[in-house]
Amino acid sequence: MSQFPQHKARKRFGQNFLHDAGVIDRIVRSIRPRESDHLVEIGPGQGAITSGLLASGAQLDVVELDKDLHPILMGQFGFLERFRLHKGDALKFNFRDLATRGEKLRVVGNLPYNISTPLIFHLLSQADAISDMTFMLQKEVVDRLTASPGTRDWGRLSIMVQYHCQADYLFFVPPGAFSPPPKVDSAVVRLIPHASPPHPANDEEHLRRLVAQAFTQRRKAIRNSLKSQVTLEQFEQAGIDAGLRPDQLTVADYVTLANLTCPGAGNA
C-alpha cells in the first residue's frame, strides 16, 4: 500500500508512479547519495525516490511540472531547508542555475517516456554542471543508450549520447513496479558526462547530421547513405571500409568522417 496521498496519474504528463519499495531502495542504493551531494530530481511525482535521497542529508532540488503534485511534495518535504521545489517544465529548465557554488549536480529521475530523449540532450547541453545522471527509462531506450557497435540497438541515439558520456545499464524494472503499470518494460541507466569528448568533433552539429544521414539506409553499405557527403577517397583517408553497414562504425569513426567533411576541413 502506498504511503503517499492519492493522485491520479495523468496520461498527458506520461505519469507512471513508482511504488515498489524494493525497486525504490535499489535505485537509491545505486545512486549512493552523500551528505555533500547536490542532487536534482526530475519528475519526483509523489516522492517515492525523493524521501530516500533526502535521507542521505544531501541538498535536493526537484523539478515538477504537474501543479497538483506541488502541495503533496511540499506537505511531505517542504519543512526541510535543503529541499527546494521548482515548478515547471524540465525541458525548459536551466540546470546550471542550481550550481551556484560551482559544484557539479547529480541528476536523478523516473523520466516520462515521451520526453526522455529530448530531455537527456537538454541535460547534456549543460553537462559542464553535471557529474552524473541516473534515470529510469523505457528499457528499449536504455538498450539503445548503452549499445555497442555491431549490435541491433546501435544507432543515432547510441552514438550521440556516447559521444558526450559513458552510458551504463544498471538493472531491469518490470511494469508491476509502477502504478498504473506501463505497457513496456523499464530499466535504470547511469550517464556520466565526459570531462571532454574522447573523440572531439570540430562541428558537433555536422556530426549529428552525418550520423542521421548514415542511418537512413541502415542495412546497406555506408558508402550508399553517405554518398552525397563522403567520397570513397575520404573513407580511405579515414581508414574506414566503405562497405561496412552504418551500425558497424564506432563513435570515433563517425567523428573522423565528420571532421574530414565539415565545412572548412579542406582548408585546415
Which helices and strands occur, and which strands form pairs?
Layout: E1 17-18, H1 21-31, E2 38-42, H2 50-54, E3 59-64, H3 70-77, E4 83-87, E5 105-110, H4 116-124, E6 130-138, H5 139-145, H6 156-164, E7 165-173, E8 178-179, E9 186-193, H7 204-214, H8 222-225, H9 232-238, H10 251-261
Parallel strand pairs: 2-3, 2-5, 3-4, 5-6
Antiparallel strand pairs: 1-8, 6-9, 7-9
Helix pairs in contact: 7-10
Question: How would you characterize this protein structure?
Answer:
The protein has 268 residues and is an alpha/beta fold. The chain folds into two domains: 11-193, Vaccinia Virus protein VP39 (Rossmann fold); 204-267, Helicase, Ruva Protein, domain 3. Helix content is 31%, strand content 19%. It has ten helices and nine strands. It has helices at residues 21-31, 50-54, 70-77, 116-124, 139-145, 156-164, 204-214, 222-225, 232-238, 251-261; strands spanning 17-18, 38-42, 59-64, 83-87, 105-110, 130-138, 165-173, 178-179, 186-193. It has a seven-stranded mixed β-sheet with strand order 4-3-2-5-6-9-7, sandwiched between helices. Strands 1-8 form a two-stranded antiparallel ribbon. Helix 7 (204-214) crosses helix 10 (251-261). The longest helix has 11 residues, at 21-31.
